[in-house]
Amino acid sequence: MKSSLQTQLDTVDANHPERVGQLVDHVLAEATQCSASDIHFEPTAKSLDIRFRIDGVLHRRATLPRELAPNVIARLKVLAELLTYRQDIPQEGRLAQARFGSDMRVSTFPTVHGEKAAIRIFGSRSAILELEDLGMSPILLAELRMLFAHRTGAIFLTGPSGSGKTTTLYACLRYLMRESDGTRHIVTIEDPVEQILDGITQSHAKPGTEFDFARGLRSLLRQDPEIIMVGEVRDADTAHITVEAALTGHLVLTTLHAGSSCGVISRLLEMGIEPYLLTSGVKGILNQRLVRRLCDICRRQAGEHWEAVGCERCADTGYHGRVLLTELVQFDDLLRQAVVARADTATLEKCAAGSNRSTIWISAQDAIANGLTTTTEIVRVLGPRAA
Fold first, then answer.
1. Is there a cis peptide before residue 192, judged by omega within 30 degrees of 0?
2. What are the φ and ψ backbone dihedral angles of 37, each rounded to 5 degrees?
3. Contact criterion met (CB below 8 Å) for 281 and 269
4. Dist. CA 278–CA 163, nearest whole Å
């Protein structure tokens, strides 16, 4: 059965001089309408496959003739103001919100079948969520608010790409801005700036230039900040400056890619952060994942749990929207001792689990028990340990 997008693309006149432009416009409009987070234009030996990532899962939505692939990618490069005559190097650009209703980040990449393009779609301002709207448990939300009451210290967010870290970061910034009533100086250094926040000084770092995260953060410390958001800790230099800032009178929010909360601790130790600085400077580590939410219309109870069925509303997937799974690790005496001893990640996780009232596994089981998602979905995102 053809998708609605495929039907639209098939109706575009093959002889129309603006055919490629119309095809691209149809794809971008459809992706925005169905709340896709990413669009993939993937050339193969026989076709150009178009796939959308919806609720964290890729779905094939349409295919175009292989001969159209170079022109479609070229059209995207023109819209993103990239170099159309360079097909041998990766490129990155943006599509303006004024034209397409949402900000879109475009990246191209050379492959054996020609250039591939991926587009990340950022939600409109109407889709911006407050901290209270993210779906955190009341206990975790209260603990997070207590951390925000501190004037110093670093709060790390971790999770894989697409786990909602940026959404959570911006929700945290809006909360801090609202609670301080504009009396605290909040600055950010990001790559890229994905949402413009009124009342907050935001800057765009450019890794590989003289304005990378580390150099930008050093300069920000001379701007009399009280709260600093660093988009991502990517190297040892940025990690050291982040922890130093947390120890010298600043509240710092940042992200770091790791497999778990305690994985953040291990990575910081590997980056050369001394254990006593880590336990003193880091106030908390928030680990999060997004799992698909069962469709409220077609879900069906099966014994003690619910199962996905599929209907028109959820495009026969059985899921509609996503659920946030979280855990917040803070340092107690046992975990501090393990860090000072430079214990491995497995040991750190055992120490953290002893005092953590809501691990990500508990959050997952609560979501299953409340009929929000399925065991299959939890295993897909967290692995078999969650089963």
1. yes
2. -95, -25
3. no
4. 25
Tell me the C-alpha distance between 371 and 308, whole Å. Answer: 10
For residues 53 and 382, give the distance between their C-alpha atoms in angstroms, rounded to a whole number: 18
pLDDT of residue 386: 45
- DSSP 8-state secondary structure symbol assigned to residue 124: P
Per-residue model confidence as pLDDT tens digits over 1-32:
678 888 888 888 887 889 999 999 999 999 98
d(CA 292, CA 57): 9
Q: How far apart are CA 320 and CA 295, in angstroms?
A: 5
**Cα separation of 296 and 299, whole Å?**
6
Rounded Cα gap, residues 205 and 219, in angstroms:
12
Three-class SS state of 77: helix
Q: Which long-range contacts (CB under 8 A, 24 or more apart) does 305-311 make?
A: 305/368, 305/369, 305/371, 305/374, 305/375, 306/371, 306/374, 307/374, 308/374, 308/376, 308/377
Q: Which residues contact 63 (CB under 8 A, 6 or more apart)?
A: 6, 47, 48, 49, 50
φ, ψ (nearest 5 deg) of residue 308: -80, 140
By 3-state DSSP, what share of the chain in percent is helix, strand and coil, each rounded to 5? 40, 25, 35
Name 187's bridge partners: 201, 228
Tokens representing residue 222 in the block: 């001379």
CA distance 306 to 308: 7
Residues 6+ apart with CB under 8 A from 344: 266
pTM of structure: 0.86
196 neighbors 155 (Cβ within 8 angstroms): no
pLDDT in tens, 303-327: 888 999 999 888 889 999 999 999 9
CA–CA distances in Å: residue 278 to residues 159, 225, 330: 19, 21, 12
What beta strand segments (E) does 197-280 contain?
Answer: 201-204, 227-230, 251-255
- For strands 251-255 and 227-230, give the pairing: parallel
Comparing C-alpha atoms, which of 323, 321, 242, 343 is closest to residue 285?
242
Number of Cα atoms under 13 Å in the Cβ half of residue 234 = 15
